[in-house]
Amino acid sequence: MTAEAIGLAVLLLGMLLLLAKLIRIRWRLSQRLFIPSSLIAGGLALLLGPEVLGRVMSWFGVEWFADGGVFTANIIDVWSAIPGLLISVVFAALFLGFRLPKLSEAGRLAGPQVAFGITLGSGQYVIGLLLALLVLTPVFGLPPMSGALIEIGFEGGHGTAAGMGGTFEELGFAEGQDLALGLATVGLLSGIILGIILVNWGVRRGHTAALSLDSGPSVSEQRGIVERQQRSAAAILTVRPSSVEPLALHFGLIALAVGIGQLMLWGLQSLERLLWADRVEIFAFVPLFPLAMLGGVVVQFAIERFDRAEVVDRLMVERIQGFALDALIIAALGSLSLTAIADNLGPFVILALAGILWCVGAFLFLAPRMLPDYWFERGIADTGQSMGVTATGLILLRIADPELKTPAYQAFGYKQLILEPFFGGGLITAASLPLIAGFGPAPFLIGMSVLLVVSLLVGLLYLGRMRAPATATAVAAEFSPPNRGDDLT
Q1: What is the share, in percent, of the chain residues with pLDDT greater than 90?
Q2: What's this model's pTM, rounded to 2 decimal places?
């Protein structure tokens, strides 16, 4: 793998993303479904790569495209390595520049949403592990680790699925990454499509508090364009470029967070080797990105304590994070193996249907009972995230609440601060595969079942009965983060 191949592979990611944005502007269906340009670009990379174009051309006796499609085998190799690197950047940036609230602050507003989010995440594990024990392992011969694929693909998304590729391979379940990436794609598309259907159903049934039949996203929002009169700065200049480039400064902070995470991981692995590695290994298989997230929390604590000049700009951090996530998704889909999915098509369909039914069913039957106010807006955001990524949840929330009149946006943000360290790529997600491999599926299933029951009971019997929408709105106004008009782009 040469430096030229690495550089060309990165340049191609940018070209594919630009082409995908042009397609998004012209393709009305992609606008109505709010399909991200990165997903379109990843689809193009997959179609033009060896898994689609290469195989089709080989049917006609043309083997020129067999190794890399219109690309080369070296470029595909680079793309397969990129997601594992960029996912640490994405997670290290999660909390940088975002004021960490006190637990009492976040709990007052986001408590019910945290309970609902834990229910969605732990339920995906419970359903997946039950399927693994009853169907996937005895019938299809997949390892019990397949029970974690719903949460990794749906709640975790493309970034988490791609970032755990090394863990899948080291545990002898290499095809699990391709299945997880396929589930992430199914979850993202079904989350957006079913989410829009649910929003229309909610409007007609009168469940939405801020949306009526004659309101909805504008044409520019559907195209992913910010109108001139609504445009604002993508980031704020906090230091003079003559001293240091602001983008480079913020990237340095993210790099520091990743470095701290790496030190944490090395320390935990060393401790494990000294104490219990002869019996079972867990941290030896844990990827870097959840520890990079904790490194970001450490850096943010230092920022809040010592950054008197407020040189850390959250918007700049989000731009770096967004670039890393877009490149990650394109590279992950471009190097996706359709062979692994085709070889395990039955389990793949079973897991995908089970994940969709659980998320939609939880929204329809549990959200109205677990969320005491504005249940539709709060629930649709969590449901979208549990089937795709955070951006999916925000897209659906902005469709259901275009002007952010409800406290759902703030509650969703605070819920992320509490839930992200554990589910959707957090510590529980990262440790799920080595825990199942080391101790078997039963202990992990029992643990997730207990967590599911507790979150259900707390949400249904306590938090869901706190009817105080006025108080919730007041709390949201008091602790709301900065509001921007470019969330859909």
Answers
A1: 29
A2: 0.75
